[in-house]
Amino acid sequence: MLSVQENERLTQVGPGTPMGELLRRYWYPIAPAAELDENPTKEVRILGEDLVLYKDRSGDYGLVGRYCAHRRVNLAYGIPEEHGLRCMYHGWLYDEAGQCTEQPFEETVRPQSRFKDKIKLPGYPVQAQSGLLFAYLGPEPAPYLPKWGPLVWGNTIKEISITEIPCNWLQCMENSLDPIHVEWLHRYYTSYVWMRQGKIADTQPPKIRHRKIGFDVFDHGIIKRRVLDGYTEDDDDWKIGHPVLFPHILYVQAGGVFSTLQHRVPIDDEHTLHVTYYAYESAPGTEAPAQDSVPYRYANLYKEDGTFEVDFSLDQDKMVWASQGPIAERNHEALGDSDTGIILLRKLLNEQMRIVEDGGDPINVFRDEEAAQSMQVPVERIGNGWDKLKEVRYIPLEQGETPALEEIMQVLSTWGDRSKVLER
Ligand code: FES
Ligand SMILES: [Fe+2]
Predict the structure, then answer these.
(1) How far is ligand 1, taken at its centre, from the CA of residue 205, in Å?
(2) Residue owning the nearest CA to atom 4 of ligand 1
(3) How far apart are CA 79 and CA 40, in angstroms?
(4) Rounded to 5 degrees, what angle do the CA atoms 169, 398, 39 make?
(5) What is the pTM of this model?
(6) pLDDT grade, residue 327 (50/70/90)?
C-alpha cells in the first residue's frame, strides 16, 4: 500500500512533477505517419500538454503549442505551408520550433518592429520511424530514438492499432509486471464471457497455472519470467522471459511469429494513448508482400451499448486498467505474492526519478547513435502455452478489423504447420 503522496508522485505526469520530468526523457509515438498524410494537422495531448502536430508541404513534421500566441485560436485548424504552420485567423506563421516567423499585418504597418521575434510557442522534435511519429518533450539535447527490433525488422507485415484509455499510464504498466492475471483475466474470465455469450455451457478453470514468477532489472527495463504447469526453468518463459522496456513499452512475442510493442503513452494524469505496433514475420526463405506505408486503425474501448469490449486479450487488459478508475487508489490496495513485479517497477521508477532530480540520465536513454539503431533485446519466442497450438494462425489481440488482414494471412501461411516455428 502506498500513501496518497507516494501515489501522486508515481502518477502525476505534468511539467515540473518528478514523474513528469522522468517521463520527459523518452520518445513517445503520438500518431501514425499515414494519418498525417490524410489530414496534415492533428490535435495531440501528451504529458499534460496541449499541442498540435502537423506535416508541412515540404514533408517536415512539427509539434507546437496548440493555441496561437495572438488570440489563442486552435492551430489544428491552421494551414501547413511550405515551411511551418500558418494560423488561419490572421496569418501568423510558426516554424517547427514554435518560433513565429511571419506576422503579415504587423510587418506591413511596422516592418522594422520585429514583434515576431518575441513570439514563440512551445515546439518539440518529431521523428518519423517505421510508420509512427515519435515526439520528445524533454530537455535538449534529445537522446537518440531507440529502434526496437520489431520496428526495423525486414520481411514482416506491420500494423498499428490505437486506443485512448481513460486512466493513468501506470495502471497499464503495472499490468505488464503481473503475470498471474493471464490465467485469470485472459483464461478464466474469457470462459465466463463465452458462457454468457452461450458459446460454452460453463466457466472453465484455467488449464495452465503459474508455478513461479521472477523479475530482473536489466539495462533497458525489467525482464519478466514465469514457469507454467508443464514447463520448467529451461523453457523460454523463464530462461529468456520478456521485457518491459522502461518506462512505457511492453514487448511481447505471441506464438513465435508475431511481435508487439505496446506503447503506453501518458496523455495526462488520467488518460493514456495505447499504441500497439505489430510485426508479423514471414518464414525464412519466403518474402513478405511490400507495404507502401504502415496501416493503422483505432480499436474501440467500448461496444455500442457502452460496455467494454472484452473479446480479445488486449481488450480485457484495457478493461481492467480503466476499471481501476482514472488513478488507482494505491492507498487502499492490498498487495500479495503475485505483485513482486509491481513493487519492483515502483522501486525502479522512484530510483530513476531521483536520478533525474540529481541531474543524471535515467536508464534506457540512448546517447549512442549506433546502439539506438537496431535494438535487439531478449524475448521468449516459444512459451506461454502457444507452442501447444497445432498450426500458425491469426490471433487477434484487439477489437476491430486490421486493414492488413490479407497480407498478415499471407505471411502466416508461409509457416505451414508449427514445425518451422519450433525449429527456429
Ligand atoms: S489568432 Fe492566430 S494570427 Fe490571430
Ligand atoms: Fe494481459
Answers:
(1) 62
(2) 90
(3) 9
(4) 75
(5) 0.96
(6) very high
